[in-house]
Amino acid sequence: MHLSRRDFNKALATLGATGFLLRYKTEIVNAFETAKSNGVNLFWLQGQSDTACTVSLLQASDPDLYDAVEELKVGINFHPTIMPSFGDEAISVLENTEPDVLVLEGSIPTGDMEYACTFGERNGEEVTLVQWLDELIPRTKVAIVGFGSCATYGGIPSGRDFDGKSPTNAVGLYQFLKDRKPSVPVVLIPGCPGHPDWLMVTLASVLLGIVPELDDHWRPKAFFSNLIHDNCARRGFYDEGWFAESFMESDMRYNKCLFKLGCRGPMTLSACSETKWNGGINVCMNAGAPCIGCMHPGFPDEISPFFKAQSRLEIDLTKTVFTTLTGAVLVGAGAYIVTHAIRESKIEKERRKEK
């Protein structure tokens, strides 16, 4: 692939993940094949997770890219779910091989709960994920990639319990690496699960020595610069003030926006609406389910409770956080939402008068 970092990022931003994969499919597969022939080692570790991100990876939309992974053209030296070796033989790979690319799926239990996630033993003692990461991160030569919301920002395992803390003190790479300051780039791809095409593009870029342009949360800007809401197929319904009042009206045939059913699309940065899922066929909102903000760094606590409408929201795109307002004059995206909330309120009043 004869692309500079600037051209790579420009092509991604212009074409999106799906278009980029279609145009540069051959080059990406060649990048994986070259990585294999050059002896590039990819380690995939699993922390606290349900393995959904691995399933997502194996369902990458393009058959050629699937084959690239299935035939181990990427050189996946360690992956607990799909590697044929096990036991001491598998653990010896971690101990005796230098990783070029380190991928993490799942969150990291820390503090007094480090032993909530272990694999392998040394002298009869279990080895924690934290121990493995502390050993492997300094040895990683090219890049560290977090795949999925758990690996990036903690995800579901980091959710606070009734005592106000995560039961396992779970964190993602964003928090875990703040003090460790690795010498290689860190790229985070949140999502529950993460999108396979975004991962394939990211792996291809780092194997080519091109680091995607990242935002303050270490996410590729190509996939995390626009609100899901901006390109949603239901956006027109939102603008017209047509809102589903219950899940009985969530089907697309009703021509209703799902904002009142708790859709977090207006405050979540992600290319879900453009790239879509299952080979570019569908996305949550099109299937009748409101976005639950799984791509948001504060997922799940900051966007809970799910499926509950929040009428006024301020969106801070620089920090990617949102808070419920008691009343204020908003600017930017926040003002846009409030404007339509006011419009919706007027429509409701007119309907009551008609009744």
Give me the strand/helix succession. Answer: HHEHHEHEEEEHEHEHEHHHEEH
Count of DSSP strands: 11
What is the mean predicted local confidence, pLDDT?
80
**How many discrete structural domains?**
2
Please indicate the percent range of residues in DSSP E strands (runs of 2 or more): 5-15%
Helix content: 25-40%
Structural Rg: 22 Å
Determine the oligomeric state from the structure. Answer: single chain
List the helices and strands and how they pair.
Layout: H1 5-23, H2 25-37, E1 42-46, H3 52-57, H4 63-70, E2 76-78, H5 87-96, E3 101-105, E4 108-109, E5 118-122, E6 125-128, H6 129-136, E7 143-147, H7 149-153, E8 170-171, H8 173-176, E9 186-189, H9 196-207, H10 235-240, H11 272-275, E10 313-316, E11 321-324, H12 332-354
Parallel strand pairs: 1-2, 1-3, 3-7, 7-9
Antiparallel strand pairs: 4-8, 5-6, 10-11
Architecture overview:
This protein is α/β, with parallel strands linked by helices. It folds into two domains: 5-207, Rossmann fold; 229-354, Cytochrome-c3 hydrogenase, C-terminal domain (Cytochrome-c3 Hydrogenase, Chain A, domain 2, Irregular). Helix content is 33%, strand content 12%. It is built from twelve helices and eleven strands. Strands 2-1-3-7-9 form a five-stranded parallel β-sheet. It is globular. The model is unreliable at 69-73 and 312-342 (pLDDT under 50).
Keywords:
2 domains, Rossmann fold, 11 strands, 355 residues, alpha/beta, 5-stranded parallel sheet, Cytochrome-c3 Hydrogenase, Chain A, domain 2, two-stranded antiparallel ribbon
